[in-house]
Amino acid sequence: MNFYKYIAVISALVCATTGAFAQAVAQPSPSPTPQPAAPQVLPETVVSAKPESLTNPSIRTLREQIAEIPGAGEVIDAEYYKYGRSTTVKDALDYAPGVFVQPRFGAEEARISIRGSGIQRTFHGRGLKLLQDGVPINLADGSFDFQVIEPLAAKAIEVFRGSNGLEYGATTLGGAVNFISYTGYDAPLLDARFEYGSYNTYRALLSSGEVVGPFDYFVSLSLFSTDGYREHSSQNNQRLFANLGYKINPELESRFYFAYAQTDSELPGNLSEEQMDIDPRQAARVPANLRTLQPVARFDYVTSDWKRDYTLLRVANKTTWEIDDNRLSLSGFWSRKDLDHPILFVIDQLTNDFGVGFRNDYMADLFGHKNNFTLGFTPTWGYVSDTRYVNNFGSRGAKFADTDQFALNLDAYALEQFWITPQWAALAGLQVNYVERTSTDNFPTGPDNSDSQNWWGFSPKLGVLYQPVEQVQFYADASRSFEPPTFGELVEASDGQVGLVQLDAQTGTTVEIGTRGRFKHITWDLCYYYAWLENELLAYEIQPGLSQTVNAENTRHQGIEAAANWDVLHNIFTNKTPEEKSFKVEYASEKPNWDRLLLRVNYLWNNFQYVNDAVYGNNALPGIPEHYIRAELVYEHPCGFYIGPNFEYVPVGYSIDSAGTVFTDSYALLGAKIGWRSAKGLSVYFEVKNIVDTTYTATSGVVADAGGLDVAQFLPGEGRGFYGGVEWRW
């Protein structure tokens, strides 16, 4: 009990000190005349005067909606990941069930996979539909970058795994991830946050939101900079996000979104395992005596200044109209991305993407039973001007390619969910896709690489949901997935290639069965899935900065996605007798009124294999660990104080080549955090990551056959780091 006594003393001191300080700052000087104590305000009377936005629902509404889906999905309350460092997408999605995310070069250059989506993609993401407030962030060809996301400007993140992304018209194996912005209805009037930590890392954010008559607004400005853990891995980002809503009447609302991002990222490259063991902080270099030779220096990440810099401008609108039993949503967006990307050569791209969306939810009863019918159509198209130059020690040399690219996606989907009884619901869905990729070669010499490809996709889904009691659900479903290649896979930079690489679209059949729920002090989310894939898109690095994508004939993905939150102990130093409804508290921003020792566990089993392949037999697919565990044990007091360790564990390394000749090592990381967080006023935190300074492979590149050699495909994770932050919310 000595440990608990220490915690009790710390909690009392922190709560008393911070509470008194916040009260002193927030309240005017006391009057000389004694004032009576303010009456106690009961929780039942604390009702927000602000109605809910129609275009950006509250977290509670989002959870209610996702709970009706017969499949795997989750809503991540952004308030929770703000308890510690919020620098990377990994920080935000670390405890999202079914999500594997690791930084490639630290900070925001991340690699994400759900159910093995894009596991071999060693540059910007693919295999998921990324959205901001339900409007696509992906480029028209399907690729995406995380640098356009500001996790601190989100109030929640929706994760729809697998075919459950059909909710937003996604047909990929991985599903959809939707970042939900604050609006004037739920944002603080003013929020100022500053973080600083190891490797000269800092992030500052200033945001504001309010309702003014029929209008509401939210605006956030953030600055981020880091020198990076490794040589030549600095990153600098400036991002502005804003939205303006107009509630024409209680049933009709229109919201405009604006985003601007300037992001600069140095790339340190892959290391061999020997290089990583000697010095994990070094960049990929060529021998010093060869760095002045232009053809060889291109492979030196520092001398040739490998980096990925771009500016993004994005404007969107979403209008929602609730009329009778219909909820009609219309949306549209335009984004402009200007990319400067020196690697083995220099890529200069200007991308303009456009999209519109139509969706109607009809929610009237059918034959006296609850019913919901959804119909959607989301055409997107984009134009890319792609020019390439010789990398002359980081500067543009001679131009050797000039291409115009055009991407078109016509996606139509329908979902019908019918409640057979109050406990049983059945779902049937279908999506039809037409996809086109066209490349026009404008370079005056050499072969004409102009080419065009198109694909059709048909993705049906059947599912069933059973809810025996209010907070326990079971579900099962079967579905098809469809994923065409992106331009990054179709445009081959190697010599001798004429036209686009001839690739088939990746398709697959997935079945899943799972359960989610809550029983008093424990919540759970458990899902098993099995996917038969045809023509899986696999990308192999053939030399630094160059990859070659092929279609595997048959592969199999199966796995377990498990997450649980458990109040191991509660009422340790408090003495509350909660009503039964109090056990339904499930948001980080809605804490119980008792203290607790909370265990959070996230486990992934990833079993991905070739199936009787002519070359690789039944080898495991490279690029991702089979087992991944993330856990934390945190003491939380209702005053806002928290403290506890966290743990990341990969018990078995994984192969970096399809031949299965070279493997990463297993690793275990230990971290901890302490802080105090309040809904209003002052919040502070301190966090240490990788306490024992373990050298480990966070993620890796992938090759076809390493021949047992120590090839440069290892990407070391960050070493020991200390981070702290302070925030004030009005």
Tell me about this structure.
With 730 residues, the chain is mainly beta. The chain has one domain (50-729): TonB-dependent receptor, beta-barrel domain (Maltoporin, Chain A, Beta Barrel), CATH 2.40.170.20. It is 8% helix and 51% strand. A hairpin with an 8-residue loop joins strand 15 and strand 16 (371-377). The relative contact order is 0.13.
Structure summary:
The protein has 730 residues and is mainly beta. It has one domain (50-729): TonB-dependent receptor, beta-barrel domain (Maltoporin, Chain A).
Keyword list:
730 residues; Maltoporin, Chain A; 23-stranded antiparallel beta sheet; single chain
Largest sheet: 23 strands, antiparallel
Distance between the termini: 38 Å
Helix residue percentage: under 10%
List segments where confidence is low: pLDDT < 50 over at least 5 consecutive residues.
Answer: 1-49, 580-589
CATH level 3 topology: Maltoporin, Chain A
Task: State mean pLDDT (0 to 100 scale).
Answer: 88
CATH superfamily: TonB-dependent receptor, beta-barrel domain
Global Rg: 26 Å
Give the class from helix and strand content and strand pairing.
mainly beta
Number of domains: 1
CATH structural class: Mainly Beta
CATH architecture: Beta Barrel
* Number of distinct helices: 7
Shape field: globular
Strand content: over 45%
Q: Say how many strands there are.
A: 34
